[in-house]
Amino acid sequence: MSAAAEYTVAGRRIAILSGMQERRLTPLDRLLAGANNALRIIGAPAGRSARQNPAGDVPDAELGDPQKRHAAGLMRVNHAGEVAAQGLYQGHAAVARNAEIESQMQRAANEEFDHLAWCEQRLTELGAGPSRLSPFWYAGAFVIGAASGILGDKWSLGFIAETEKQVCAHLDSHLEHLPEDDARSRAIVKRMRDEEEEHGENARNAGAAELPDPVQRLMRLTAKVMTTTAYRL
Ligand SMILES: [Fe+2]
Ligand SMILES: [Fe+2]
User: Fold this and answer.
1) What is the pTM for the complete model shown?
2) Ligand 2 centroid, distance to 44 Cα (angstroms)
3) Rounded CA gap, 5 and 17, in Å?
């Protein structure tokens, strides 16, 4: 059985076996998997991604210190967003009522884990680290995810569709603001953007409800607080 992802917790390598992901989980499985997932997300380093880093062999540019700091700030924001995405998808999956939707969310969460690992790898290359508030981003997003999931699958799917739409807009703005020469960060952000779009489309196809305007505004405001804070902290 091949490992879908590997990561390190307290110095030990742990592998997630892909064959296990398709099995319907018992409540105890979910609890243990949730605690395990939270530890691996918060306890950076996240470890190896299941898929190859899109920056691959792209040569690293000679960036000046201010450019490097700026790129690191933006990639830290993206990393924090991926930590929140993990919390959100895991929160949704924990209360999903439909097995197919639950497994769709698990698949998306696996791709989000790769995004997280790629952002972390780039941060290391830039001589920086993830947000110190990662536990807070994860816990907050998990609670929001589970709460919207309790309202019903069409609302949690609606929440995902809206989140991914806002994330795409945000990643587009990062592609404008990242240093022109920073091709490695750009390759990662571009791939993430394409996959976030696909996650949103999948959620809409699975029956996402359109969220009311005030909720969409509140989500934009929350995202603003997170992105502004994670750039520095
Ligand atoms: Fe992502
Ligand atoms: Fe996504």
Assistant:
1) 0.77
2) 20
3) 7
